[in-house]
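Field log, afternoon session.

UNIT: design team B
ACTIVITY: writing a sequence onto a fixed backbone
BACKBONE:
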C-alpha cells in the first residue's frame, strides 16, 4: 500500500504541471539545463543500468520502476545543479548571466566583491550601467552586434565603476547561447579584474617613459652601444654634440665617430670589460664631426648583462669637454707665451720677495746689468739704484704690499751702459687666500724718453719764443671756438689783456658781417685735410682792419682733435692795394675793349674802303681802259694801210690794255673776296691755298674740324689774316712748304700758318712790318690773340686764337 501510495504520489506529481521557480532561480534553471540537460534534438546514451530509458517509445518499465528512475534522475540533476551552483558561487573569477537585453540575471560572489554590490543590487540592471561612461558607447555597439547575431564570442577590456566610484579595468569574455530562431537565450560573461595588472603596466610604461625621456632629454650625450660597436640608440644631446641627426648617428658605429688616434685605447678598454674585467669603463676621447672638426668628450660606459650573464650592451654617457680642453690648451699656450714673453722680452722682468730680494730675473735684466741669474738671485735690488733714489724705491716696495698693489716709478740705475733712467711698473702676486706673497716688476730703459722730454721742453721754449716774437696774431682755440692761447702781439693789437681774452669766443672780435663765414671755416678745419684759409674784418680801435688767417687742427698723441691753431696777418694795406689794382685792371679792361672796338671799326672801314676801291677799279678804271683798248683797236683797223708798221704797235697797245684790265679785275677781287659769300670761310681758305701754290712751292690746307659759317665781318677778318700770313711766307720768307691748319674747338677757332722759310726776328721787325700790325689789329678786333714765333733760318709760325663769333644769320646764297 505504501508503495502504491508512493507511486500514486509520484504519478500525481508527474501529472501536475512543472512548478515555475521564483525569478531568482530562473537563471539557475537555465544554467542547469545548459550544463546538465542535453541539448534539444540530442539523443543521449541510455542511463546506466536502464537501457533505452531515455526513449519514450521504448519506455516499457513498470510504473513504479519508472518513478524510481525519475527520482534518481532528479536527484542526480539536483546534485549536478548544486555542484554547479557551488562552482558558480565560489569561482575565483567573476561570472554574470545576462538575458538577451543585457540585464543581469545572476552574479557570483567574485563579481559582487569586485564591483562592491550585492547580488540583489545587481539583478535586473543592464550591465552597461556599470561600464565607465567613456566606454559605454563601445559596449552598446558590441551589445547591438550580439543581439543582431553578428558575434557569439566576445573578448574585450572595459573600464567599470565600482560602488565606491573606483575605476576598474576588467577583462570581459562573453559566450552567447541562442534559441533555434537565433535569438539570445542567455549570455554567460566571465569578468577578470585586471586593474592591478594595468596599474602595474601603466607604472611600467610611466617608468619606461620617464627613463626614455631622461635618456632623450638628458643634457649630456647618452647612447646604447652593442658589444660590436653598433650604436643601438642615441639621444639628441649626443647628436647635437657630434653635429649629426639622431637618425644619421644611429646608422653609424662607435669606430666611425671616434678619432683614429683615440680608437685603440677605447677598444682596449671595451675588450677588457667584455673579457670580464671592470664593468664600468671611462676615459677621454676625441670625436669627429661630419665637417671634420673635433669634439672632446669624457665618457663613462657601464656594461649591462642579460639574465644568463651574457653582455648585452653598454650604457654610455658622454660629456662635451671641448671648451675645457680649449681652455686647458689656451692655458698651456698662455703659460708658454708667458715663458716666452718673460725669457725673450726686451723688457726687464723681475720677481722679488716683500723685502726686495730677487727671486727671478729674466735674460734681459742679466744683460742690462751684466750679472748672471745665479749671482743675482737672493740679492737686494737696492744696491744698483742711485743712492738718491733708494729711499723712494724702498717706499715703492712697501706700497706694493698695500692695495691697490700697483704703482709706476722712475729711478736711475747703474747699468753696463752707464747711469740710465729706468721706468718700473710693479704689481703684487697673490696666494689663494688673497695675501701678497711676491712682487713683480717690469722695467724698461726710458733714458731716450727723458732726453726727448728735455728736447721737447727746449722745443716748446723755442716755439713760445717764436710765437711771441711773431709779427702776426697767433691764436689757439678749443673745439667750441674759445681762446686758449693768444701771443703778445695779438692781445696788444686787440687792446685787451691776455687774461681778458682767454676763455672767450673768438667770434666776439670778428665783424658781424663775417661771423658766419668764419664759423663755417672753423667747421671746415674739423674735416680733412684739417687746414683752411680765409680773410675777415676785425674792428680795432674804431677802425676795421682786414686779417688773413691760416688755420689748422691740432691732434693729441692718440690722433684725437684737441685744438685749432690760427695765424693771422694784417692785410688791410694789401687789400687796399689790391682794390686799387682791381680798379686799374678794370680801367685797363675797359680801355682794351675800347681799343678792340676801335680796331674793329678800323678793320670795317678798311674793308669798306677796299670794297669801294674794288668797285671803282672794276666799274670805273677797268671800263675806261676797255674803252681805250676798243678805240685803239678801231683806229688800227680803220687806218691800217696808212699806219704801216705802227699798226703792229697799236695791236700790242690793245693787248697791254687787256692785260692791265685783267690784272685790275684780280686786284678788285682781292680787295673784296667774293668767294667768302659763296663758299664760306673753309672753302675760301682752301681756294686761297690752292691758288697760291705753284712751281717750287707747296701750300697745303689742313682742317682738323669742320668750320661753321660765321658772320661776314668775322669771316673776312680771319680770311685776311690767313691771306696776309700766306703772302708773307711766299713773298718774304721764300718758303718751299707752307701749311695752313684750321680747327674749331668748343667756341674757339685756332688758325696756324707754318712755313720752312728763312725766318726773322719778330721783335726787331714788328714796328716796321705793316702786315704784322694789320694782322694784330684784326685779331684784336675779333677779341682774339695773335702770336708770331720765328727764328732766323728755322721758319715762322703764325697762330691765331679767337672766338668763333656769331653764326651766320641766314644763307648767303
Amino acid at each position: 500500500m505504501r508503495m502504491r501510495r508512493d507511486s500514486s504520489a509520484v504519478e500525481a506529481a508527474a501529472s501536475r504541471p512543472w512548478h515555475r521557480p521564483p525569478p531568482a532561480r530562473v537563471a539557475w534553471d537555465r544554467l542547469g539545463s545548459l550544463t546538465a540537460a542535453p541539448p534539444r534534438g540530442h539523443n543521449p546514451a541510455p542511463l546506466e543500468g536502464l537501457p533505452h530509458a531515455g526513449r519514450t517509445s521504448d519506455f516499457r518499465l513498470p510504473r513504479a520502476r519508472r518513478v524510481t528512475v525519475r527520482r534518481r534522475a532528479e536527484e542526480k540533476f539536483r546534485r549536478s545543479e548544486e555542484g554547479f551552483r557551488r562552482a558558480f558561487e565560489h569561482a575565483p573569477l567573476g561570472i554574470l548571466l545576462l538575458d538577451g537585453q543585457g540585464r543581469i540575471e545572476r552574479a557570483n560572489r567574485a563579481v559582487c566583491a569586485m564591483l562592491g554590490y550585492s547580488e540583489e543590487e545587481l539583478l535586473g540592471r543592464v550591465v552597461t550601467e556599470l561600464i565607465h561612461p567613456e566606454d559605454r558607447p563601445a559596449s552598446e555597439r558590441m551589445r547591438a552586434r550580439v543581439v543582431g547575431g553578428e558575434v557569439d564570442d566576445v573578448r574585450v577590456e572595459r573600464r567599470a565603476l565600482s560602488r565606491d566610484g573606483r575605476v576598474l579595468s576588467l577583462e570581459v569574455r562573453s559566450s552567447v547561447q541562442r534559441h533555434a530562431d537565433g535569438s539570445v537565450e542567455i549570455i554567460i560573461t566571465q569578468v577578470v579584474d585586471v586593474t592591478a595588472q594595468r596599474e602595474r603596466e601603466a607604472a611600467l610604461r610611466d617608468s619606461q617613459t620617464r627613463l626614455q625621456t631622461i635618456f632623450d632629454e638628458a643634457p649630456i650625450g647618452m647612447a646604447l652601444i652593442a658589444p660590436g660597436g653598433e650604436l643601438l640608440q642615441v639621444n639628441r644631446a649626443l647628436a647635437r654634440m657630434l653635429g649629426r641627426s639622431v637618425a644619421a648617428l644611429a646608422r653609424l658605429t662607435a669606430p666611425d665617430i671616434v678619432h683614429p688616434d683615440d680608437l685603440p685605447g677605447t677598444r682596449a678598454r671595451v675588450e677588457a670589460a667584455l673579457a670580464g674585467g671592470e664593468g664600468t669603463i671611462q676615459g677621454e676621447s676625441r670625436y669627429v664631426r661630419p665637417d671634420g672638426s673635433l669634439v672632446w668628450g669624457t665618457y663613462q660606459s657601464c656594461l649591462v648583462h642579460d639574465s644568463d650573464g651574457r653582455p648585452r650592451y653598454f650604457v654610455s654617457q658622454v660629456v662635451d669637454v671641448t671648451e675645457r680642453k680649449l681652455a686647458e690648451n689656451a692655458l698651456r699656450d698662455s703659460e708658454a707665451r708667458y715663458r716666452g714673453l718673460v725669457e725673450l722680452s726686451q723688457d726687464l722682468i723681475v720677481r722679488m720677495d716683500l723685502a726686495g730680494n730677487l727671486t727671478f730675473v729674466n735674460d734681459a735684466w742679466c744683460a742690462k746689468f751684466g750679472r748672471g741669474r745665479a749671482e743675482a738671485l737672493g740679492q737686494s735690488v737696492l744696491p744698483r739704484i742711485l743712492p738718491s733714489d733708494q729711499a723712494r724705491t724702498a717706499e715703492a716696495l712697501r706700497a706694493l704690499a698695500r692695495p691697490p698693489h700697483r704703482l709706476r716709478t722712475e729711478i736711475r740705475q747703474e747699468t753696463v751702459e752707464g747711469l740710465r733712467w729706468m721706468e718700473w711698473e710693479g704689481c703684487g702676486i697673490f696666494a689663494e687666500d688673497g695675501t701678497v706673497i711676491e712682487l713683480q716688476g717690469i722695467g724698461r730703459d726710458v733714458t731716450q724718453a727723458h732726453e726727448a722730454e728735455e728736447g721737447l721742453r727746449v722745443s716748446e721754449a723755442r716755439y713760445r719764443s717764436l710765437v711771441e716774437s711773431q709779427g702776426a696774431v697767433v691764436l689757439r682755440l678749443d673745439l667750441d671756438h674759445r681762446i686758449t692761447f693768444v701771443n703778445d702781439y695779438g692781445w696788444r693789437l686787440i687792446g685787451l689783456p691776455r687774461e681778458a681774452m682767454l676763455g672767450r669766443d673768438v667770434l666776439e672780435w670778428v665783424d658781424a658781417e663775417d661771423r658766419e663765414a668764419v664759423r663755417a671755416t672753423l667747421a671746415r678745419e674739423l674735416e680733412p685735410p684739417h687746414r683752411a684759409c680765409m680773410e675777415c674784418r676785425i674792428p680795432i680801435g674804431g677802425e676795421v682792419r682786414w686779417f688773413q688767417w691760416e688755420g689748422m687742427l691740432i691732434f693729441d698723441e692718440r690722433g684725437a682733435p684737441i685744438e685749432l691753431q690760427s695765424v693771422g696777418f694784417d692785410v688791410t694795406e694789401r687789400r687796399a692795394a689790391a682794390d686799387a689794382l682791381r680798379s686799374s685792371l678794370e680801367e685797363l679792361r675797359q680801355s682794351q675793349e675800347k681799343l678792340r672796338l676801335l680796331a674793329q671799326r678800323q678793320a670795317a672801314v678798311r674793308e669798306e674802303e677796299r670794297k669801294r676801291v674794288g668797285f671803282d677799279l672794276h666799274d670805273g678804271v677797268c671800263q675806261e681802259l676797255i674803252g681805250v683798248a676798243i678805240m685803239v683797236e678801231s683806229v688800227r683797223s680803220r687806218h691800217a694801210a696808212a699806219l704801216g708798221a705802227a699798226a703792229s704797235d697799236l695791236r700790242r697797245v690793245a693787248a697791254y690794255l687787256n692785260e692791265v684790265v685783267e690784272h685790275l679785275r684780280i686786284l678788285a677781287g682781292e680787295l673784296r673776296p667774293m668767294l667768302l659769300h659763296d663758299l664760306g670761310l673753309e672753302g675760301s681758305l682752301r681756294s686761297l691755298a690752292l691758288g697760291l701754290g705753284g712751281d717750287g712751292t707747296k701750300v697745303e690746307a689742313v682742317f682738323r674740324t669742320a668750320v661753321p659759317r660765321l658772320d661776314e665781318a668775322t669771316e673776312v677778318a680771319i680770311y685776311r689774316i690767313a691771306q696776309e700770313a700766306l703772302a708773307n711766307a711766299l713773298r718774304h720768307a721764300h718758303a718751299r712748304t707752307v701749311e695752313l691748319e684750321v680747327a674749331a674747338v668748343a667756341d674757339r677757332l685756332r688758325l696756324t700758318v707754318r712755313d720752312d722759310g728763312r725766318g726773322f726776328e719778330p721783335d726787331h721787325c714788328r714796328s716796321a712790318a705793316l702786315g704784322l700790325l694789320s694782322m694784330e689789329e684784326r685779331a684784336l678786333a675779333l677779341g682774339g690773340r695773335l702770336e708770331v714765333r720765328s727764328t732766323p733760318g728755322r721758319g715762322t709760325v703764325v697762330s691765331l686764337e679767337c672766338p668763333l663769333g656769331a653764326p651766320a644769320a641766314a644763307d648767303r646764297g
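LOG NOTE: The longest strand covers residues 418-430.
NEXT ACTIVITY: expression trials, pending approval
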